[in-house]
């Protein structure tokens, strides 16, 4: 499980440094668009299904324009330990009032609301993963800083990201050593865990001391300056405004209904 | 102002846990010298280097850097003269991208954004890493990390370069590049290492340290060829001297011809790197639809590649 | 357990974001004023440490299932509540992005649930008084155990409340709470034991690291929990009000949604084409024709015709979306 987790982390991170149209967009524009998307999706009421379908356009566009491997992200979405699934599955059990029979199957309200939760789950989780797959983490931090998030929190995020991979690798080595020496169950017990994590902690503190020395010797005096000449381009404006317009249209208008009646008319 | 740039006089230091790391250490280093500090593990090399930029202050004795006596008050000024490159590049490169990392020092010096940006470009060019500017450090190879670490320090334009075990995590090719790079600098250089071959190739002078004291000090060629002296200090003859007891004055004070040879080798590396960068960007320009621009960039790349031959020719003429 | 976007309403999500943002700003201000600059790299690297440590699991004795480290409590003990909260918030942010734990809207709730309670309730009100100054090994163990349990219990009940307020789940409060609290009691005990172990380990090796937390610092009675809480309430009421006003101006409720899924009664029936064919198939396969709306509907033919229109519309939208994606991919391949 550990290695898989790490592999995913590293691969997702590598994806974010690609150079496509979507990757080149201003991180602020992508961040705002993603948040607007998530809020719009969850703003649909409990029993909504058809209204959510047009929203699949957004992930599909990002997948294809950003050249993101679909299987990888879908696998990640499916593997997410889903609290939503765990809670949502109670709806069909608790709300059994049958409201319709579709193709001969009785459909209860609980199933409709459960299905709605699943659609929302898929859309929101995919959009978060797509944001990080198309925007480098430092880029997101710069965007947050520009949007007014406190500097301390930003430098915290930057350091966390910088040392994440270093420490995860260190932890991975320790875990491999543990697993190799523990043939049965015993080595995975709490005692080994405590000394493993404790040792990792002490090494981390020593590393922090060395980093601080390195920072001081390059003149650190309390501020992390960031330089990134991000200029908002025409593409960013077009991207953000068209996203907003589409979100509004999809939220307010019944696209599926319109397509349905259109098809009934033409066929 | 004295002509010494670094001067230690009877310096003693013990760590908070009581370990005595320096026991009356004295040395003098002149402007422009390249000095290797060698010694077994735990001899006190790192502790010595940490004193040079005031990361730690001596318990007794005095240290002069440039024309400043090192004290708690002057350590900030001292640090501007001393570019310290730490042993582990992962500790040295703490910013999320190469660019931000190299810019860290210049911005702390109070340079404006534009001047800082110039410094960054210049430093990255010198170490041949312009292509890496937007990469996060964890996507770099260890050789690249070590080059960027050097860039992050020379962007501050220090007078003295101090390095702790710079070659310890490098593969042979990156190690060779680092040697060429160091030999192209005119800074005062102080390099601690137990890779004696590395010292032999980069330093003209060598100091042996044991138990926090100077045990020997002299021309690298002589000190590092003295088998009994080295063994007394738990060191071994450098590999290159083992097979070939009379070296071609590699470690000796370099005359200008030798320096030129190193420089040409270094320029050649750079030139290749530049040509590659031009070609990459030509490709990118083409994919952006700027075909004319791509054409010109392609021509620049081709011209640059042709210069390779001139360098090879120059190398040949040196003999 | 991580709260998820799909279970949230915008109003609840926004309210908890408001509370979280308020707390982050407050902590940042507090830290900017008082913090030693040495703490900046330490906090950052400890965030990475918590992240890495959470990826390691261990076997819980007697169960065979596995547990991992919580983090909030250890951070609070080492860094104090303000810095610990900031670090916890950053860890959860990175997890929300890279592991998709919960999602972006739910991140506000998750920082609140997993950061605020350990740092600003369990640490100052449970751990500090119990551990005492320079506490013994046993006191430390008990303090971290109880601190861990209380922090997680509060976090769990918070998840229940957030879900209920959002109204996407059918679970009634009592059932939900009975489901959540015991699970989290077990998790809390295990986490507490592990936390105690790690803290004792650190104390044995580098006692000076914990000095700040266990020695003379005055008991944090001045912690602004009240202030934070009141700020949160105000923010919650404001955003809740605005959002529900926005929501009510849109058609809402079951009837409207069901109609959209299964069709509108005012569309004319079809007598030819694909729609008609599908309709007749549906009529033939309708084994239980007398349920719900259908029973109430006196014109069965029309209702099923429009339901078919809903299904076709859905299929068309999805097919169109996929087609767009496929075409873009194909074009990219070609140009590459
Ligand atoms: N942070 C420290 N705390 C205590 N003792 C230390 C510390 N760092 C180094 N030492 C001790 O100081 C002595 C000199 O170490 P160091 O300068 O690192 O040697 P070198 O770099 O030559 O291997 C050794 O005995 C070492 O164990
Ligand atoms: Mg050393």
The number of helical segments of chain B is 13
Order of neighbouring strands in the sheet with most strands of chain C = 1-2
User: In percent, how helical is the residue content of chain B?
Assistant: 40-55%
CATH architecture of chain C: Orthogonal Bundle
Pairing-aware structural class of the strands and helices of chain B?
Answer: alpha/beta
How far apart lie the N and C ends of chain B? 41 Å
Assembly annotation: heterotrimer
- Helical fraction of chain C: over 70%
Largest sheet of chain C: 2 strands, antiparallel
Give the domain tally of chain C. 1
- Principal-axis shape of chain B: globular
Q: Greatest interface and its residue counts?
A: A-C, 132 and 129 residues
Low-pLDDT regions of chain C: 215-223, 243-271, 284-305
What's the average pLDDT of chain C? 75
Strand content of chain C: under 5%
Q: Can you count the beta strands of chain C? A: 2
Order of helices and strands of chain C: HHEEHHHHHHHHHHH
User: Structural class, judged by helices and strands of chain C?
Assistant: mainly alpha
Descriptive notes:
The complex is a heterotrimer of chains A (267), B (319) and C (336). Chain A is mostly helical. Chain A has one domain (2-245). Chain A contains 13 helices and two strands, in the order H-H-H-H-H-H-H-E-E-H-H-H-H-H-H. Chain A has a two-stranded antiparallel ribbon. In chain A, helix 1 packs across helix 8. The model of chain A has no long low-confidence stretch (mean pLDDT 87). In chain B, a hairpin with a 2-residue loop joins strand 9 (205-210) and strand 10 (213-219). In chain B, helix 4 runs parallel beside helix 6 (142-154) and helix 5 crosses helix 6 (142-154). The longest helix of chain B is centred in the C-terminal third of the chain and has 32 residues, at 256-287. Chain C has 336 residues and is mainly alpha-helical. Chain C has a single domain (5-335), classed as Arp2/3 complex 21 kDa subunit ARPC3 (Orthogonal Bundle), CATH 1.10.1760. Chain C has helices at 10-34, 39-54, 72-79, 81-98, 106-131, 137-166, 173-205, 207-214, 225-248, 254-262, 273-285, 292-296, 300-335; strands at 58-59, 66-67. Chain C has a two-stranded antiparallel sheet. Chain C is globular, with a radius of gyration of 27 Å. Chain C has 13 helices and two strands; from the N terminus they run H-H-E-E-H-H-H-H-H-H-H-H-H-H-H. Classes of the chains: A mainly alpha (267), B alpha/beta (319), C mainly alpha (336). The complex binds adenosine-5'-diphosphate (ADP) and magnesium ion. Adenosine-5'-diphosphate is lined by residues 15, 17, 19, 21, 39, 41-47 of chain B.
């Amino acid at each position: 499980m550990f290695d898989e987790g790490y592999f995913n982390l590293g691969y997702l991170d590598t994806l974010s440094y690609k150079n496509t149209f979507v990757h080149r967009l201003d991180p602020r524009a992508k961040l705002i668009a993603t948040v607007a998307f998530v809020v719009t999706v969850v703003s649909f009421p409990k029993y909504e299904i058809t209204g959510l379908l047009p929203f699949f356009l957004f992930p599909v566009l990002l997948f294809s324009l950003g050249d993101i491997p679909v299987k990888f992200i879908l696998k990640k979405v499916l593997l997410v330990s889903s609290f939503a699934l765990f809670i949502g599955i109670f709806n069909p059990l608790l709300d059994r009032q049958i409201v319709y029979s579709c193709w001969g199957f009785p459909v209860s309200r609980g199933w409709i609301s459960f299905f709605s939760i699943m659609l929302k789950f898929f859309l929101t989780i995919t959009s978060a993963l797509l944001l990080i797959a198309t925007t480098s983490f430092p880029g997101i931090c710069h965007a947050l800083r520009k949007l007014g998030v406190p500097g301390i929190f930003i430098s915290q995020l930057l350091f966390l990201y910088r040392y994440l991979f270093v420490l995860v690798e260190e932890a991975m080595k320790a875990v491999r050593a543990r697993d190799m020496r523990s043939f049965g169950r015993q080595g995975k017990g709490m005692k080994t865990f405590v000394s493993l994590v404790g040792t990792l902690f002490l090494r981390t503190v020593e590393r922090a001391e060395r980093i601080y020395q390195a920072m001081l010797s390059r003149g650190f005096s309390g501020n992390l300056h960031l330089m990134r000449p991000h200029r908002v381009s025409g593409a960013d404006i077009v991207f953000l405004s068209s996203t907003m317009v589409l979100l509004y249209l999809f939220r307010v208008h019944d696209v599926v209904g319109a397509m349905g009646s259109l098809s009934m008319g033409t066929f | 102002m004295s002509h010494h740039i670094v001067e230690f006089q009877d310096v003693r230091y013990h760590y908070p846990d009581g370990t005595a790391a320096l026991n009356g250490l004295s040395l003098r280093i002149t402007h422009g010298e390249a000095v290797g500090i060698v010694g077994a593990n735990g001899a006190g090399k790192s502790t010595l280097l940490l004193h040079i930029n005031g990361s730690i202050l001596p318990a007794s004795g005095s240290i002069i850097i440039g024309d400043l006596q090192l004290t708690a008050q002057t350590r900030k000024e001292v640090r501007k003269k001393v570019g310290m490159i730490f042993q582990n590049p992962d500790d040295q490169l703490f910013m999320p991208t190469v660019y931000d990392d190299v810019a860290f020092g210049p911005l702390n010096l109070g340079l404006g954004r534009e001047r800082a940006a110039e410094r960054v470009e210049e430093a990255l060019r010198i170490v041949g890493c312009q292509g890496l500017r937007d990469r996060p450090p964890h996507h770099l190879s260890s050789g690249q990390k070590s080059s960027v670490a050097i860039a992050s320090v020379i962007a501050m334009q220090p007078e003295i370069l101090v390095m702790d075990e710079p070659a310890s995590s490098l593969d042979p090719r990156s190690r060779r590049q680092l040697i060429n790079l160091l030999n192209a600098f005119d800074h005062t250089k102080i390099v601690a290492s137990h890779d004696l071959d590395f010292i032999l190739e980069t330093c003209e002078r060598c100091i042996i340290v044991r138990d926090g004291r100077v045990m020997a000090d002299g021309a690298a060629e002589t000190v590092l060829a003295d088998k009994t002296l080295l063994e007394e200090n738990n060191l071994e003859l450098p590999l290159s001297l083992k097979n070939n007891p009379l070296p071609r004055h590699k470690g000796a004070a370099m005359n200008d011809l030798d320096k030129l040879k190193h420089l040409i080798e270094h320029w050649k590396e750079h030139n290749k790197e530049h040509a590659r960068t031009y070609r990459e960007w030509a490709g990118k320009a083409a994919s952006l639809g700027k075909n004319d621009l791509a054409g010109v960039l392609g021509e620049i790349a081709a011209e640059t590649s042709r210069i390779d031959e001139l360098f090879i020719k120059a190398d040949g003429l040196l003999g | 357990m991580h709260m998820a976007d799909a279970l949230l309403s915008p109003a609840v999500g926004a309210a908890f974001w408001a509370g979280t943002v308020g707390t982050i700003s407050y902590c940042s201000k507090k830290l900017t004023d008082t913090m030693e600059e040495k703490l900046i790299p330490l906090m950052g690297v400890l965030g990475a440490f918590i992240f890495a440590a959470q990826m390691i699991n261990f076997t819980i004795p007697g169960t065979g299932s596995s547990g991992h480290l919580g983090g909030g409590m250890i951070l609070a003990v080492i860094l104090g509540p303000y810095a610990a909260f900031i670090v916890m918030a950053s860890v959860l942010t990175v997890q929300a992005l890279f592991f998709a734990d919960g999602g972006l809207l739910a991140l506000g709730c998750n920082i609140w649930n997993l950061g605020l309670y350990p740092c600003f309730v369990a640490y100052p009100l449970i751990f500090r008084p119990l551990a005492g100054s320079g506490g013994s090994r046993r006191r430390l163990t008990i303090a971290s155990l109880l601190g861990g349990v209380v922090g997680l219990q509060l976090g769990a009940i918070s998840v229940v409340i957030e879900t209920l307020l959002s109204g996407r789940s059918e679970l009634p409060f009592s059932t939900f709470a009975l489901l959540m609290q015991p699970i989290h009691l077990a998790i809390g005990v295990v986490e507490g034991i592990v936390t105690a172990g790690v803290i004792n380990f650190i104390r044995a090796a580098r006692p000076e690291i914990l000095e700040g937390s266990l020695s003379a610092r005055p008991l944090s009675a001045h912690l602004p929990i009240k202030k934070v809480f009141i700020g949160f309430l105000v923010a919650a009421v404001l955003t809740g009000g605005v959002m529900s006003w926005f929501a009510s101006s849109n058609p809402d409720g079951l009837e409207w949604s069901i109609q959209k899924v299964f069709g509108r009664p005012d569309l004319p029936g079809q007598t030819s084409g694909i729609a008609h064919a599908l309709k007749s198939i549906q009529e033939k396969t309708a084994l239980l024709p007398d349920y719900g709306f259908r029973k109430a509907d006196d014109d069965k033919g029309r209702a099923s015709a429009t339901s078919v229109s809903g299904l076709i519309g859905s299929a068309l939208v999805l097919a169109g979306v996929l087609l767009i994606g496929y075409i873009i991919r194909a074009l990219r391949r070609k140009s590459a």
